[in-house]
Amino acid sequence: MSLKIPYETVKETIKKALLNAGLTMEQAEVCSTIHTQSSADGVESHGLNRVPRFVEYVQKGWVDPKGKPELIGARGAVENYDGHLGIGITNAMFCADRAMELAKEHGIGCVALRNTTHWMRGGTYAWRMAEAGFMGMSWINTESCMPLWGSDEPGVGNNPFCIAIPREDGPIVLDMAMSQYAYGKLGVYRLADKKLPFPGGFDKDGNLTDDPGAIEESRRILPTGYWKGSGMAIALDLAAALMANGKSGFDMDEEGRGSCTGCCQIFIAYDPYLFGTKEEIQEMLNRRVAAADASHPEREGGQVTCPGERTITTRERSMKDGVSVDETVWSQVVAISEGDLNTKDIASK
């Protein structure tokens, strides 16, 4: 069952839960804001729903709240950091901001981060760069959670990729995993007792299915674009590990901790006006988006939009009517905020 909870109530409840988990006031403030914003934007799978698992990982020592990015090497517009298994959100925010600082100086900035933890909603950092006026690109490698095309067992991560275009009339932001649905989204549909809009993987008997629970059980999520998503996933894995001189998905598999523990992340910021004026670039962007949005819908009354355009509408609705939360997950986070740190991660089961 879904509930509508005021934004500030959600944020303060998550903040209390994170303080109980051992985060500092500053860390809890930043992380609770990001988790709540994610849910308010309609990405509850990596917003409120991820809080119990994050608390569990802090307790296990898989996330070290004291870990912070350490500069390992720098060459011009490129820097490499070790995240020391710190909080994924704060590590990623630091690196996205550092990439923008480098882009101010060089026109482009690239920060490669190794040995970090789950960044939660990947689009957070792409949005951050776009809203600051930069084109942003970022991706992450993960442990194996998706079969390579032609296999029936997990052999590669779904390695989310994000790109953001800094359009002043509204950023265009693509935030996608290399699987048709991320596991977090499967959990959202399962908790709501709903089928997926499109088949998202295979059941244990190898049948393509729209049953989220059956896909979670088989661990056979469907690569986006079949063999293309599978191929893109392994390329992103290798590129992130190469650029950060860190762990590949295979290395994370060998360690066996899960949920991106020890992963690599890449953050690239680009000055959009490096070779053109602001006026001509923005005019071009607006023409292209307007043409895309004017595409004839396949269903009467439908509307075609570019990635990220509906996010603002969802955010405004959440601020007005309350953030949509799953009742079971909400109860769990409330319990953690009240001091019960032994609650199991219902959202991921």
Automatic annotation (TrEMBL):
The keyword Oxidoreductase applies. Pfam families: Ldh_2. The keyword Oxidoreductase applies. It comes from the Bacteria. One of its GO terms (molecular function) is 3-dehydro-L-gulonate 2-dehydrogenase activity. Its EC number is 1.1.1.130. This is 2,3-diketo-L-gulonate reductase. InterPro entries: Mal/L-sulf/L-lact_DH-like_ah, Mal/L-sulf/L-lact_DH-like_NADP, Mal/L-sulfo/L-lacto_DH-like_sf, Malate/L-lactate_DH-like. It comes from Lacrimispora celerecrescens. Keywords: Oxidoreductase. PANTHER family: 2,3-DIKETO-L-GULONATE REDUCTASE (PTHR11091:SF3), OXIDOREDUCTASE-RELATED (PTHR11091).
